[in-house]
Structure formats: structure tokens, C-alpha cells
Amino acid sequence: MSTSRIFSQLNRRLRWRPTWREVRYWPLTILPWIPAVIFFNDHVGEHVWINGQSMYPFLNSSFNEDLSKDLCWNSRWNPTANLKRGMIVSYQSPAHPEVLVVKRIIALGGDIVYTRAPCPVPTVHIPANHVWVEGDNKDSTKSLDSNTYGPIPLNLITGRLTHVIWPWRSLGAIHWEEFKGRTRVIKGRRDNAPGWD
């Protein structure tokens, strides 16, 4: 067999084009997975890119150097169960419901928070089924959070950030327990929250 014949056969195999008979079954293999993927993203979890500097320096730690973004795992499995101060959650923005926001829980229902600018009142008593969220950035002008729109209802919370996936130097679980906040909070009891029955 000559070399030209070998190359022509190899070339024919490399230029494989699926026939109609093979192509028509592709949707039958792909379509059943679409509901499973949607269910997984809505109820189990998804990855979330952290944009902006509101969570700097805890997330996007190199934001001031190269504008890079952190990629995090957002667990959507029962997101409002056992919430604690310091946890990082994702929620729908009260000001723009189509926007997913990532912030840290500072106070729970029943707590009293000493607010920061631009909040017009010095203290806020957190009502039942609400949380107070803030960004980690020391500059309060870099974060639109509860100091702007007040306590958020629990039903806006869509997930909890549990792991950093990218960049590699930050890869691993998010240790929210180590957080020491700047905002002064007087811890209350849930049954002391306004609106608690």
C-alpha cells in the first residue's frame, strides 16, 4: 500500500461527518438532561463569579492589583436553615431583583445593629425573618448593602457561599466562623424580634 493511499484513508477518517441518521438522535440524548441541570442549579448549587470590591479583602483579594474575580460555590440546598452571623450568602437585591448579590450576614432577627453611612438612623432593630447584610470592604461607599436598603427578608436569600473554586491560591472552604466584623451588634433573642409571634 502506497503512502498516498494511507494518507487519503486517514484523511477521510479525520473528516468524519455525521449522517442524518446519527444526528437526529442527539436531541434525544441531550434533552432529558436539561431538567436535571435546571433542578441542580435551582436547588443544589451553582458557581458564582464575585464581581466588584464590596467583599474585598475576604473575596477578590487581588481586586486592587489585577481586577480578577473569584469563582465560588453557591450552595442552594436549604439556604435559610441555621443562618449564623458571619456567613456569606447570596440573595436577590431588593433594589434590583434580577441581580444576585453576595454579602455577609452581620445580624439576625432580634439583634440591634449600630449602622454605618449611608444609613439615616444610628441603630436598627432587626425584625423577625430578616437579616442585616454588609460587604467586607472598609470603605462603605464600595458596597450596596443593608446600610442602603435596610434589613433583607429571609425569602430573598438564594444560597450560601461555601467554597472558593478559583483562584487556586484561595481554593478551599470558606471559613466564615473566623470573621470579626467592624459593625457593632447587640445580639438579641429571636423571640424578641419585632413581628415575632
From TrEMBL:
One of its GO terms (molecular function) is serine-type endopeptidase activity. It holds the Pfam family Peptidase_S26. It is a single-pass membrane protein. Residues 26-114 form the Peptidase S26 domain. CDD domains: S26_SPase_I (cd06530). It is found in: Mitochondrion inner membrane. Keywords: Hydrolase, Membrane, Mitochondrion, Mitochondrion inner membrane, Protease, Transmembrane, Transmembrane helix. It comes from the Eukaryota. Transmembrane segments: none annotated. Gene3D superfamilies: Umud Fragment, subunit A (2.10.109.10). One of its GO terms (cellular component) is mitochondrial inner membrane peptidase complex. The active site is at 54, 103. GO terms for biological process: protein processing involved in protein targeting to mitochondrion; signal peptide processing. Belongs to the peptidase S26 family. IMP2 subfamily. This is Mitochondrial inner membrane protease subunit 2.
